[in-house]
Amino acid sequence: DIIDMVVTLEDFTDQMDYLKDNNYTVLSLKEFELFMLNRKQVPDKSVLVTFDDGYKNVFKFAYPILKKHGFYATNFLVTGLITNRSIPYDSSYLQYASIDELKEAADVFDYGNHTNSMHQRNDDGVAYLEWYDTKKVKEDLATANEWLGHSNAFAAPYGEYNPTTLDILRDLNTKMAFTIEPDY
Questions:
Q1: What average pLDDT does range 152-181 have in this prediction?
Q2: How far apart are CA 178 and CA 184, in angstroms?
Q3: Read out DSSP for 141-157?
Q4: How crowded is residue 49: how many other Cβ atoms within 10 Å of its Cβ?
C-alpha cells in the first residue's frame, strides 16, 4: 500500500512536467534560504522540491527526471542509514542510498538533516524527537550535521517536533526547519 506521502513515478513525472510546461522556477535550498531571508527575489511561480529519508529509489527514479528538466531538489537524509557500499536496486524493500550515490547526484540534490538515528517512534507512537531528553536529541542532530558537513536545514521526522526541538536547532545554528504541516 502506498501511504499519502509517497508519490508514484508516474505522478512525479507528471508533476515535474507540469512545473516545466508552466514555467515554474525550481529553487535550490540556498536560493530558498535567501528568499526566506528577503535577500533574493524569486519569480512568483517558484517551488522547492523536497524528499525525505535518503531512499535509493529517489536517486534511481527521481534524479534522472529532475536532471532532465534542469531542476534542483533537497533530500533530507537519515544519515545513520546511508550506506558505505553501493548495492543493486531491489524494489522489494526500501533501501537507503550509498555515499557514492549521494555524491553522484549532488549536481541536482542539496542535502539536509533528517536526524542521524531518531527517525523512529517509541512503543506508544511518540516520535523520538519529542520523547528523548534534550541532550540525546541534540547529540543526534549534531552527529547528522557533522556527517553532512553542517546542514542549515532540518526536516522533522513525521513532521513532529516541539519547542525544545526548535531550541536545539537554534543552538546548532540551523536556519530552516521543515515540517509536513502547511504553514510558516
A1: 95
A2: 9
A3: HHHHHHHHT--SEEE-G
A4: 21
